[in-house]
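Support case: nicotinamide-adenine-dinucleotide complex. Customer-provided input:
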Amino acid sequence: MTTANLDSLAQLKQKIDTREARIGIVGMGYVGLPLALLFSGERFKVTGFDISADKVAKLNAGESYIVRILPAMIQEAQKSGFRATSDYTEIEAMDAVIICVPTPLNDHHEPDLTYITGTVASIAPHIHQDQLIVLESTTYPGTTEEIVAPMLEAGNPHGLKVARTLGEPGVHVVFSPEREDPGNDTVARRDIPKVVGGCGPAAAELASALYGTIFRRVVQVSTPSAAEMTKLLENIYRCVNIALVNELKQLCMRMGIDIHEVIDAAKTKPFGFQAFYPGPGLGGHCIPIDPFYLSWKAKEFDFRTRFIELAGAVNIDMPYFVIEQLASALNNKSKAMKGSKILVLGVAYKRDIDDLRESPSLTIIELLREKGAIVAYNDPFFPTVGQGRHYALNMTCTPLDNLGQYDAVVIVTDHSSYDYRAIVKESQLVVDTRNATKGMDSAKIVRC
Ligand SMILES: NC(=O)c1ccc[n+]([C@@H]2O[C@H](COP(=O)([O-])OP(=O)(O)OC[C@H]3O[C@@H](n4cnc5c(N)ncnc54)[C@H](O)[C@@H]3O)[C@@H](O)[C@H]2O)c1
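Agent response - structure generated as follows:
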């Protein structure tokens, strides 16, 4: 039995080496789709699974729904056999399955694992011996071992177990976090080392072989939990440091010091300092959410993650701080917030991307409306903003002209296509939350 299983593992490794391995990626979103393209680029035949019939139809028609992924890239992948489906029976034909579904928070700020459990319940009946199953969705330590592995074992009709020792028959289960930084073109995707933690040694080896085809370096850790914690440490590190500069920004403003000048000077230190920048609040699917996965899990161990809570409190306050600064700037012009015409520039959560999940702009627009302001927005990536899990704006993008009509223009996202000099020139008042007007000297600018 043991020798036979070692042979079948060698066969799977060989299939990876020869690019014959079939790869299924579940969740064709911001993480899953680029990953599918990377594997297709290495000549693997990739099948993308998604519950959205619309996404499946678009991908099969060679179209894209993510701005930075061009239709030509999908069409190129199709030449290697890429296609999309919602039919989970096709999981049976896959040698490796990689799960990239959302991991949001519920209304009580607790982990919502329903996308993961829904996916695992759907694939479990179709898994087979020696298949590699990888979870990439960011989650708390223990998810792979305590939820994914038992569900796969209970949900398959063949009595398959998760292989935990070398030579043991079963499926190979791994956690490997996604480390993408959307909009960051300075590091090529394949130069971002890939961390893997397997339920058993064969799982880690197989995942390393597979990811080694698209990433220059694979870093193995001893368990899935260690890999899950690695991802959270990275994101919490950012969250805490952003909170630190957001707090120091507020102090610097009171003291008449420019925080950006300070950060620029501090980052000249060649060791022991990494620059983080203040802003209008956290956004995206990761940094505002992931730390709470850990603080929730920590409670099971009677542990309070105080850094996470403090950073969360500072960062959550930032949109409110922007509103205060805007109100004060209007007040200086003898204007009230109520009835003022305000243009919000940028609804994406960060520069040059088409993602508005958890964007501070959404909170800022809602707060402005609550205060009776007449709000418009402009964002080259969003012709409309409708309704999401936590907001209902239902707005249409306003053209970037006649800026003089607004009592204030608030720069929330510093898209690089904006001409900031022209914006300052044409506007009555500019509230800049991103230092986009750096180097400009005008009494119209309020930096906060
Ligand atoms: N976006 C990022 O920059 C980023 C970076 C690192 C990690 N992550 C993590 O990666 C995971 C995925 O994030 P994303 O940004 O790609 O999310 P996304 O919302 O862009 O994509 C998720 C996709 O999964 C599909 N889906 C949901 N349930 C499904 C199911 N049961 N079966 C098949 N498809 C299903 C959705 O239709 C959607 O297309 C999250 O855990 C996130 O925290 C995201």
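The mean pLDDT is 95.

Case will auto-close in a few days if no follow-up is received.
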